[in-house]
């Protein structure tokens, strides 16, 4: 197992950080490294809002559901899918351009995810810890207003980055046999059952608070309600018309 | 610059591979490593179809627009956003579950992208090369039938993996100043103009075929048509109703 694979396997989300700033030139280097990720047809459909203003950080804590580390990590980045830049670039050549395709929503969402994951790994390789903040989609309209996000730009997730002040247990993952299917999709309920036992054990024995649950039970609250039901209307409003 | 950052920065898509197989246990180890990526609420909303059948590989060459390396790389993976597994897990607890939310489409698309990027990096750390195949969305319905993808599962992209038989130039990226915005979204057209000059020079001097173009010109064919206009209907049909 080489060092990079070791690093990748040691990922855990960090939610407690030292009161220590990341040198600004290191942060920029991490982002530049992130940009080396693959990008669909070189489109690079993303922008990153680096939120340094303390007042904005505090407001983002509220807008993401009270996650205090959004204000307490050394840095907070808002990763945006950005179709504005490529659309304008294409238009500048004299072409009539088409916007609002579902395909464009997918491309930009994948593009920004690949960059973010590269940044996460680069950060971890420098001894930093990160936490993705999907809660940025709790109030995407308010976040967009706060950060002046224009048409054809939407906030996909945030990321806290800083020096870790905790080392939580690494959370187990589904057996690889559940994830990988040979040539055709196949049933994996047997592996899910096994994983429920794994997670039951994990929740009982983990550091920092145990509970009685398993994987299926932990997912239930996520699916028994219309979570973030505003997203479609928000995206349409933002020019990701999804047609 | 540490070795992991060096590795990340050396990424280029590989489209020519040696005729040499990746040991099966290494491939599984790469995928297991990929699974360590962050996942929204532990949902792990992805499946990977490992296509080993030669006939299927040949058909996928056609369905992705004639990209021969889809058949010629040691391995070909089809990365699917998979909401079936978590929906069924949640349902098994006795809950009434909600499917088809746009939010779920986003979560699964991000989840599978993070895993894929981790696998890409793990592969490159072992001296392998990769190429993402967005062309899997050229004919997503036919791909779904070929690979028996069920409801609530959709193919997001493919990935060729193998031992590189080429080392193309590393493609420049937008200046980091265009990508990163401080506290609020801001105009970046000045940096885009500079990048057009960078790309003009790159296209004139790169190995393996030069041409007269720049970034904006290279994007025009992507936006002057309704590229993959079937995606919305396809996703609705697959149970990503986008509501």
Automatic annotation (TrEMBL), chains A, B:
The keyword Transferase does not apply. InterPro entries: Flavin_OxRdtase_Frp, Nitroreductase, Nitroreductase-like. SUPFAM superfamilies: FMN-dependent nitroreductase-like. Signal peptide: none annotated. GO terms for molecular function: oxidoreductase activity. Residues 9-163 form the Nitroreductase domain. Keywords: Flavoprotein, FMN, NADP, Oxidoreductase. PANTHER family: OXYGEN-INSENSITIVE NADPH NITROREDUCTASE (PTHR43425). NCBIfam families: PRK10765.1. Belongs to the flavin oxidoreductase frp family. This is NADPH-dependent oxidoreductase. It comes from Halomonas hydrothermalis.
């Amino acid at each position: 197992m080489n060092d990079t694979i070791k690093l990748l396997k040691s990922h855990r989300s960090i939610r407690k950080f030292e009161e220590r700033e990341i040198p600004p030139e290191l942060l920029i280097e991490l982002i530049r490294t992130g940009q080396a990720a693959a990008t669909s047809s070189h489109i690079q459909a993303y922008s990153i809002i680096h939120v340094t203003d303390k007042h904005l950080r505090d407001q983002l804590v509220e807008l993401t559901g009270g996650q205090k580390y959004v204000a307490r990590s050394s840095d907070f980045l808002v990763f945006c899918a950005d179709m504005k830049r490529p659309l304008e670039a294409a238009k500048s050549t004299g072409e009539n351009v088409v916007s609002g395709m579902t395909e464009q929503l997918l491309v930009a969402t994948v593009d920004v995810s690949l960059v973010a994951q590269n940044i996460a790994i680069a950060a971890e390789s420098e001894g930093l810890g990160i936490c993705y903040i999907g809660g940025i989609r709790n109030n995407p309209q308010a976040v967009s207003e706060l950060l002046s996000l224009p048409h054809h730009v939407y906030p996909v997730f945030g990321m806290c980055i800083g020096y870790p002040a905790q080392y939580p247990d690494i959370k187990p993952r589904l057996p690889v046999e559940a994830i990988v299917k040979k040539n055709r999709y196949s049933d994996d309920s047997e592996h899910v059952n096994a994983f429920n036992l794994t997670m039951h054990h994990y929740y009982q024995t983990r550091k920092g608070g145990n509970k009685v649950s398993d994987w299926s039970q932990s997912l239930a609250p996520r699916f028994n309600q219309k979570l973030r039901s505003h997203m479609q209307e928000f995206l349409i409003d933002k020019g990701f018309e999804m047609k």
